[in-house]
Amino acid sequence: MDTFQTEVSRAILAHSQEIAEKVTARQCALQPDLWEPYGKLAREKGIQDANYHLLYLSEALAAANPILFADYLAWVKVLFAGLKLPPGALETNIAILLEELKTTLPAAMHPLVQEYIGEGLGHLAQAASEPPSFIGEDQPLAGLAREYLSAVVEGERQVASKLILGAVNQGEQVKDIYLQVFQPCQRELGRLWQTNRLSVAQEHYCTAATQWIMAQLYPYIFATAKTGRRFIGACVGGELHEMGMRMVADFFEMEGWDTYYIGASTPTESILQTIKERGGDILAISATMTFHVSRAAELIDRVRAATPNREMKIMVGGYPFNISPQLFQQVGADGYAPDAQEALHLAQRLITSGA
Question: Can you give the residue range of the structural domain that contains 47?
Answer without folding.
Answer: 3-126
